[in-house]
């Protein structure tokens, strides 16, 4: 069972602002039956067409999708369109006391619907994530299943500081169906993180031998072995001699024809995360 | 709030009689059945009795029963054993609607040099035996097909399948976790070589399962170590759980007819009433032979998790084929394999009854579910489109 906050449950059981607005100034529709969730957002502006005086929604989706829609309509009432555009998916989630990470895409859907509604009202290009509908697209489609573009994914990756493909799936659904775009998502993460990393190098500077050994062990435990476990494999650290790391493969990795390739992968990972001079050697252990 | 538990394909309540049977084997009769002394020996006798009881429910010989930790272990043991027994054969036949205990293993094995055929099912969840015949070849080591589907309750024609598999010289394994205790089985006249069952699906505790292994069928153990289970499954026997499983199998035999009469009638009434009261609903697997206790029903234009949460407000426990309940984004692989449209797959709910289900509980669901569906359709942007249709 999902660990929903009381606020999520409350907004799901008693959703605010359900329904349609006749003569709405702006309508934004995202998602589809195929995706498993969809949101239609209606916005009514004041006579000066500046502030949002009313907002209503219709949502097809799970409990957190309905709660996120309810929260969104409450949050944007009284805001100008520009103020409303500043509402982020994180603020929607925070309003509800947080969402399980797997459900963050529900809050993203709220933000998307708002962007679509306002863009359509203003007559500019419609943001690309109006999945399931044929609208003008911005950027290149990365996830074909859910119709998500590189531009949209970059934005979500950067603003939520995502660093794994799985997180991107939780937040946007991208890669969650056929999985064909996961390599591309990983590239996008690397690009976005690369841009952010210019300010904050991930690799530590000069290391003492002891610190280097600790870091090698940590990296093996946290970054590398879990990846091998996923394929039924494993490795053991046999020895560290200076910058030479000796490992032995276990389980499915042992005797696997591609273990040489896996060793290269381990080496690259250690070079990236610990120190450039590291070499990895496979030994009998 | 008293729960109305209609999720018995997920797990079941431990029968009081089963619990009483296992209770002394924790703090009083805690001996190791392999020990030489009287204290272990008396536990060995109870383990033997349990083995006899399990065998009796299956129409098998006691030596053909291997206790395991769960259905998943039984499935993994059976399939991996076949690959070791036939090192020259690298083909496995299974279906797209299997439980992950089989499907994930097969997909992992496909990355390790095995060739996997996943048979399709039709819109009612049935296999095409012609497709099976075409898939079988001399390279086929094992065919693993479930007896009854956990999501839809659809029953496969296991004996017909077994005869086809035997003719090709492959081993035949069936995951019968949902069928044992609901469908009468007789291994003495069966074509099944290996069969998996799980305790917690038939009112025994979690953490105990069994693998039926036909006498004479070659086998390589999954767990090696001690000589327990005639060296076919090492590890100290989970004595209290084994004794519980034995009692649960004895009870299942006693209640088998009730499952197929009273429980069946409750399921059918629930199905009939919901279809009458709720427009745009359909039964998944409706056209096929099904387990007596399982109802998978799809409601168009609403999402399953939202239905479950609202049912939960009334104490009603069911499960869903929706993507949102699992954290994955694809609706159930079973419903997708059946070609259930997305509009329905996301709004599919499974009710699974047991011999503890009461008529009053069924009444409550019939009363509470229609307004829940109506309410969610009112919130849904597709609800209006549907009403226009």
**Rounded Rg of chain B:** 22 Å
Major beta sheet, strand line-up of chain B: 2-8-7-6-5-3-4
CATH architecture descriptor of the largest domain in chain A: Alpha-Beta Complex
How many helical stretches of chain B? Answer: 14
Give the strand order, joined by hyphens, for the main sheet of chain A.
1-2-3
How would you characterize the largest beta sheet of chain A? 3 strands, antiparallel
Ends apart, CA distance between termini of chain A:
43 Å
The oligomeric status of these chains comes to heterodimer
**3D shape of chain B:** globular
In terms of per-residue confidence, which ranges of chain A show pLDDT below 50 for 5 or more consecutive residues? 130-137
CATH topology of the largest domain in chain A: Sufe protein. Chain: A
CATH class of the largest domain in chain A, named Alpha Beta
Number of helical elements of chain A = 10
Residues in β-strands, percent of chain B: 5-15%
Secondary-structure element sequence of chain B? EHHHEHEHEHEHEEEHHEEHEEHHEHH
Keywords:
heterodimer, A: 285 residues, alpha+beta, Sufe protein. Chain: A, Arc Repressor Mutant, subunit A, GMP Synthetase, Chain A, domain 3, three-stranded antiparallel beta sheet, 8 strands, 18% strand, B: 389 residues, alpha/beta, Aspartate Aminotransferase, domain 1, Aspartate Aminotransferase, domain 2, 2 domains, seven-stranded mixed beta sheet, 14 helices, 14% strand, globular
